[in-house]
Amino acid sequence: MKNYILIAFFTLITFTNCSIDGNETSEVITKTYWHLRNVSGGIAGVDNNFNLDEIIWSFNELTGNLTVTNNNTDDTVEDALESGNYSFSVTTDNTNKYLIINDNEYGGLLFSETELIIDQNITSSGSGADGFIYTFQRVLVIED
Predict the structure, then answer these.
(1) Which domain of life is it from (predicted)?
(2) Whole domain around residue 58: which residue ranges?
(3) Assigned domain for 84 exists
(4) Structurally, how many domains does the chain consist of?
């Protein structure tokens, strides 16, 4: 009789996908990282491409903190911000959004599902012609 109870118990656990120790599976957390892929524009008309993982921006909307990891070693190439932590916010004017970094307007924001563009020619005070355009690729990372 004891064998039937044990068989029934393990069958129940198997079919209900429960664990014996009671640990539930944890929620999957994804984090978005923006990888700088291209910088274009400026007075000299630059067009610089970067490898994935070379320059990474991570926005924490809860704290208003932007973390930049910049592994570019060529100081002659425009690559936006140096590695470090920056305060950021986003302001909206009608339908346009603008990125503010360390209390300075950095440029207009354009989003898609996989791309972020910061256009320094689009400002809340009008448009310009000599700013840089930073194009980022979105990378999602699953964290434990």
Answers:
(1) Bacteria
(2) 31-143
(3) yes
(4) 1
